[in-house]
Each structure stands twice: as C-alpha cells, then as structure tokens.
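Posting this for the archive.
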Amino acid sequence: MLRLSLIIFCFIPYLAVAELASVDIYSDEQLLTLIRTDRYLEQVQTDDCQLVQDIEARAEILKQPMYQFLWGEMLNHGVCVPKHASRGMKQLQIAAEQGSAEAMLKLAEYYYHGKMVVKDKNRAVQYVMPAAANGDVPARLMLVRLFSEGYGSPVDYKLGYHWLYNSVFNDEATQKQATSLLQNLAAKMPASIVERAQQPQLH
C-alpha cells in the first residue's frame, strides 16, 4: 500500500505538467471574440498565465495585431506580467498602425477617459475615426458620441452620422444606443444635412 502511494505521488508532478500543456494558443477567431466581449484578460488568468510566452512571441516577433493588442493590455494592467504601461501602449499603437480596429478603439477609450494618458477627446477622435470608416460598429458609436459632445471637426459630423445611421446592429440594445446617439448629433446639424446623411449613399 505504501509503495502504491509512493508511485502515485511520484506521478502527480507529471500529471500536473500534462494538464498545464493542454491549453492551446487562441485562434484568431477565439481571440477576436474574447476582445469584443471584453473577456481577454480574464481568459489569460483563467488559463493560469500558461500562454504568456506564446502571446509575447506572437506580438513582439510575429507582429500579429490581435496579439499585440492582447500583449499590450496585459502590460497595461499587469496581468500575468509586471505592469509596464508605456510598453503596453506602444503595442496598442503598433497594432493600430497595422489596421487593428480593436486597438484603435482601445486607444480612443484611454484618451476619452484619461486613463494612463492625459485626457484628450480630440485625440480619441483621431484614433477611432479610421476604425469607424472601416465599418467597426463600436468605433462608429464612439465617434458619434464624441461628435455629439462637441469634439472633432463639425465638417466630419455628416460622415460620422451617415456611417452609424447605415450600420447593421447585432442586438436591440446596440440599435437603441445608436438611435440615441444619432439624435444627439442631429441636434448639432442642419436638418438638410441630417437628411442627406441618412441616405444609403452619401453625396
């Protein structure tokens, strides 16, 4: 009995290693879903920080934008690694430069709220506008919110209104939020401009 117990005890570390090795790196689709549902940092912690080296390699060496986003956010918040906001924000900026709508939106949110950076809502407009132009609905929501609060150029109000008005929404709550934001922005625009912005094609 004692011998059997010793054998089982000896195998425990190997069983633990096998369990640790079972976590696979996230697919692009999985990671995008985690980002869009704001569960990406929670998932890294749920996986017991096993994927830190893989995430860092995909961000720093392979230069994959979604992993640059994830790695940047891990550094920004000190998740599984020591907190290093300047490195984290740099990763987000690199991802944004590569066209990541998620990184553009996150940077805009940081500047909107003044978190880890000086609050600058006009800079938030600059970050979020390319993502909005490329069809990202959360970015369009934020852009119209910023415009309705008086930030950005009034010349662009018609464009921002047009993009959001002609967006397709996945759920009723987002559609209601868009309707409210559009009403707020319309109050800052001449009725004739609003009417033109509501057309399927902007002229």
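The chain has a mean pLDDT of 91. The CA atoms of residues 162 and 199 lie 7 Å apart.
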